[in-house]
Amino acid sequence: MGWMMVPILILFLPTLIIMLLFELGNLWKKSSIYFPPGPRPLPVIGNLHIMDLKKPYQTMLELSKQYGPVFKIQLGLQKIVVLTGYETIKEALVNKADVFAERASVPIFDDLSRGFGVVFSHGENWRVMRRFMLTTLRDYGMGKRSMESRIAEECSFLVKKFESYKGKPFEFRGIMRAAVGNIIVSILLGKRYDYEDPKFIKLLSLATENLRLVRSPPIQLYNMFPMLGYFGTTRTKILNNRKELYAFINENFIQCLNNLDENDTRNFIDSYLVQQQQERENQNNGYFNHKNLEESVMNLFVGGVETITSTLFWAFILMMKYPLIQKKVQEEITKVVGYAQPRAEHRTKMPYTDAVIHEVQRYADVLPLSVPHATTVDVNFKGYFIPKGTHVVPLLTSVLHDESQWENPHKFYPEHFLNTEGKLIKRDAFMPFSAGRRICPGETLARTEIFMFFTSLLQKFTLQPAPGLSKEELDMTTPLNIYTLCALPYS
Hints:
Strand order of the largest sheet: 1-2-8-5-3
Distance between the termini: 105 Å
Structural class: alpha+beta
Shape: globular
Helix content: 40-55%
């Protein structure tokens, strides 16, 4: 009887295939109905043809006007859900923090971090390393007077460096990067470098170059089509830079290991090595390995230097652009601080200066795209079904310039953070450090650094554009092209 069933199966096979395809089609339609809307993708390339690879966040902002605050784009074969606007991003990152707490897998970041460290790690490794990083940063003074003293000392070196130019124009971004870099180095290694130290300059330039390259169009294409990256030079350059950075970390790791005293830990690496030894003695699961150390140090150094440097760079450009605001800040510094060195404790007595710094961070928008998140479980969000593991981009620029939250979202307007009595007010839509479980672990340190560097320099100097460039000619759309200023004595 079995052989007689074969012709029957052959006869009905096309019908079975048609029925199967019909059911698959229904499932696809159902998933499409509940998945967020978005532009129609093309085969292979997805929505690549409509993306501005130099400013992808601009394309996303335009798409949100058409498809709403939750929409999808497809880059290559990768579906990405984009979240825009304060209400939507708060709902995801704060109200549903655990659901959106995973880090999306991005090829170039996977190449660089290999799943270790804090910023690009996952699951329990992320939780253990983040907890250790936050605890250790607090131990070494984040938010305490000991850290303020380190920053104050560096401010003194920076002021002397500015004074050495005697009012002549000079390139200041590199100097600011070195000053900010020394704060992180003091935490990581317990020392500082001279601004002209060749090794230090090289270290900073490698980190800066890698940050620039990972945002470049060739790497964005690599993230969409990983096979392409192996034929290009940009990915190779990034990995070679990483090797040099790791070599520096390992050199100092050996020095710390040779001089380690469990009862007198002097820096972040010391604390990590002590924790590593304790984990081995307790036969724990080995999160405190050398790769996590390398990547955690890299996260702190790269993340702690470039974002703060960029914010301060914007702050000084904006003070040159708006000299009346600069003068008002200086007058408040004189009134509250006098000739003493500005400290973090002065911030509560300087509402206008604090409002200006907040507005710099909002307006400058140095991280328009948050590092991609991913969902930890299936979730129904804002009427849409988003499966577990979906790549999610919270568009932070849409929060910092949300027209429903800010009176003048596209203008530099310190009054955003002042009430009618001139007192500082908190704005919930102020999210320059992101929000939720993946918020920047160094936020407190960054806020202290920005305030103290900014006030220490404006206490001593009036900043002006280099000769031949008026404040009206300052191009606020591409401030990275402006490198020179005149620092004139202020009294």
